[in-house]
Write a structure and sequence with these properties.
3-stranded antiparallel β-sheet; Aspartate Aminotransferase, domain 2; single chain; alpha/beta; Aspartate Aminotransferase, domain 1; 14 helices; 7-stranded mixed β-sheet
Length: about 375
């Protein structure tokens, strides 16, 4: 049987997006390729998992009541404003599955997280991209994006701060964009998974606005904030009307009991761990950037806690730079998967002071310093 004649044509045209997060492959090397809480997972996590394991003899709660209750208390929302997922990646897939049909247009900046375009193309969408200009510091031009929206565009995707460029759009501009999209009958998918570790989070986040805008879905995740990428827990925040529609397409029992029990406790009992990680990054950001400014190539200061660096300035591709940094015991993210010309870029995050000393020493060796 020739299966290639049986699959949907959208699937035939797809290649799976490539990601980093493979630090487990590189023993003895410090991983700066994944954007996680610099403190690592919170203490006592193993005990939480052990205690939750005693309840594995029954099905998990399909409503995720305990986790939603903890999230509702944290954000001052109703449980009806929350949907949970197997990481934010499940919600990135669910949104197009529920709202996007073959032939719909979707708009997003480029470069940005590859799962958005993959999920939309999987559903047969036509992708419209707004290029982020290096001469503008990769800052999103929301006015230009609005001008591209017409009656055939179903949704716009924004990551804030953007992955991989580490640039934030201001809250006022985002709200104006969301409101303009609502008037144009366009949905907005806003990814805030990397915002929670920024000191300026409260002044940027659009979470307080979700009940006021039926066209808005915001996704977040415990992956980055608690440094637990191996436990796949994400969530979406939106108006109750939006959530009720998304729930129709959600996979039954998508979160197991371990994930629900542990993540509910992390949110309600250990959120100080996120705040402590945020303070480390806030303190380390200016110090590390001052050191990086001593190199011979231009290194822009990011809005986020990770860098997006053009290593072509040093005569290298991203892949070559990654290998040279590995030789110094440091793993960075080669950004070739974002497409040309980003095969000449790398991404790396900040961690604790001790770890950042290893990073800057490796960069000194690979890039060289002025003078």
């Amino acid at each position: 049987m020739n299966l290639s004649h049986r699959m949907r044509r959208e699937v035939a045209a797809l290649e799976r997006p490539l990601h980093g997060g493979d630090g487990w492959r590189h023993q003895g090397i410090e991983d700066f390729s994944a954007n996680l809480n610099p403190l690592g997972p919170p203490s006592g996590l193993d005990q939480m998992l052990f205690e939750a394991a005693s309840e594995l003899d029954h099905y998990p709660d399909d409503s995720c009541d305990a986790l939603k209750s903890a999230l509702a208390a944290k954000y001052g929302l109703d449980q009806g404003n929350i949907i949970t997922g197997v990481g934010s990646s499940e919600l990135i897939r669910l949104f197009p599955e529920v709202f996007i049909e073959r032939g719909d247009k979707v708009l997003m900046p480029r470069p940005t997280f590859g799962e958005y375009s993959f999920a939309c193309r999987f559903m047969g969408a036509e992708l419209m991209t707004e290029e982020l200009a290096p001469e503008r510091g990769f800052r999103p031009d929301l006015d230009a994006m609005l001008q591209r929206l017409d009656g055939s565009c179903k949704a716009a995707f924004i990551c804030n701060p953007n992955n991989p460029t580490s640039v934030c759009a201001p809250r006022k501009a985002l709200l104006e964009f969301i409101e303009s999209c609502e008037r144009k009958d366009v949905l907005v998918f806003l990814d805030e998974t990397l915002l929670e570790l920024l000191a300026q989070e409260d002044g940027i986040s659009c979470v307080p606005e979700v009940e006021s805008h039926d066209n808005l879905l915001i996704i977040r995740s415990l992956t980055k904030s608690f440094a637990i990428p191996g436990l796949r827990v994400g969530y979406g925040l939106a108006s109750q009307r939006m959530i009720s529609i998304l729930e129709r397409g959600r996979q039954t029992w998508n979160l197991g009991h371990l994930e629900q029990a542990v993540s509910a406790r992390l949110i309600s009992e250990r959120y100080h761990h996120v705040e402590e990680g945020k303070k480390v990054l806030e303190k380390e950001g200016p110090r590390v950037h001052a050191l990086l400014s001593q190199h011979r190539i231009k290194i822009n200061r990011p809005d986020g806690f990770y860098y997006f660096l053009d290593v072509r300035q040093a005569g290298m591709s991203g892949a070559e730079f990654r290998e040279r940094m590995k030789g110094q015991g440091v793993l960075v993210r080669d950004c070739a998967s974002f497409g040309p010309p980003y095969d000449g870029y790398v991404r790396f995050c900040l961690r604790t002071r001790e770890k950042n000393e290893l990073l800057t020493a490796a960069l000194d060796q690979v890039l060289g310093k002025e003078g």
